[in-house]
Amino acid sequence: MTTTRLILVGGFLGAGKTTLLWEAARRITESGKRIGLITNDQAPELVDTAILSRNDVKVAEVSGSCFCCNFNGLIDALKNVRDEANADVIIAEPVGSCTDLSATIIQPLKQNLRGELIVSPLSVLADPIRLNDILNGETAGLHPSAAYIFRKQLEESDLILISKSDRVSPEELVLLKEKAKLHFPDSEVMVVSSLSGEGIDEWLNEVLTRTDAGKRLVEVDYDVYAEGEAVLGWLNTTIELSGRKTDWDAFARELMQNLSHQFDSMKASVGHVKILIESGENYLIGNLTGLNETLSFRNSAGTSSEARLTLNARVEMSPEALEEIVRKTLDATKGKNLRKKIVALRCLSPGRPKPTFRFDQVIPVF
Length: 366
Ligand SMILES: Nc1nc2c(ncn2[C@@H]2O[C@H](COP(=O)(O)OP(=O)(O)O)[C@@H](O)[C@H]2O)c(=O)[nH]1
Ligand SMILES: [Mg+2]
Prior knowledge:
Distance between the termini: 18 Å
CATH architecture of the largest domain: 3-Layer(aba) Sandwich
Shape: globular
Number of strands: 14
CATH superfamily of the largest domain: P-loop containing nucleotide triphosphate hydrolases
Radius of gyration: 20 Å
CATH class of the largest domain: Alpha Beta
Helix content: 25-40%
CATH topology of the largest domain: Rossmann fold
Mean pLDDT: 96
Order of helices and strands: EHEHEHEHEEHHEHEHHEHEEEEHE
Number of domains: 2
Bound molecules: guanosine-5'-diphosphate, magnesium ion
């Protein structure tokens, strides 16, 4: 069996992980290497998997549990991607509310797949606006226990990647980088933008050559961690839309605006709300990663009489309340003659994390 390299890209919900996976996959493929991707969620019907699969690379999904609580699912996915795509490099994106990856994933992988898998330094992405707030001792609009997870992710990282650098001025970035280094002196800090391309090759150069993964373990209070996850309602749904010709981009905007206004008016903190509307070859992605001002759209699903909507929402409220809001908003969103057939819907609040393994020492790499 040849040695495959695994790059884990962590970071809080909405940090830009999936966008970076897409961009990295493109660049690695261009360089002549074969790549596979692994997504992860508490439930199936994942927008990320659907988006990444459009990139013509092999994508495996570990759903129903995070990597650390379903370590064997991660191993199966790794083997599946490696064998089917004959992958030189695999990039895996853990659930955004997950932490303690060094102790629960990286050390067990280093021990159990020695000789088969080279693990790259743990990269953790952080949205610059949220990061700045966290470094200032605030909670970035999150529940304090969710903000604790955000900080723990950074603390255990080998590489902190300040993402979306195109959204911040160069002067602010310099300050932010310095501040991040002061707070997390054991991690290296880099700056990337999947949009402008800044820093991506530099980061790839690090993670494609280095082997110092999971250099340290951090203490994690699992009661706080569990609360940080449990405050989020989690909803994944796929809906078939059909009827009269509909402008799907207008439909998407109305749906996301309505959802966003409701969450804002309830002061419900948004981890991430993401939609994908696919109509034939055309598709549109909508993203909300906080207050209404964070709402953004990419591409176009055009106008047609049929489309498929996948919606993932992680919002601070009970799953029941989240489901009611999503159902009502969908009903109220334009296209009265539009049929909306729910083909899958899962709504939950993540249970207490119970990792398959938790190592208490760093496994050396020879
Ligand atoms: N401006 C900008 N936005 C980005 C960048 N990377 C991701 N985003 C946006 O951030 C939001 C969350 O991205 P996503 O990759 O889904 O984050 P994830 O939840 O960490 O996987 C989306 O609206 C993306 O379009 C970037 O480099 N620049
Ligand atoms: Mg993602």
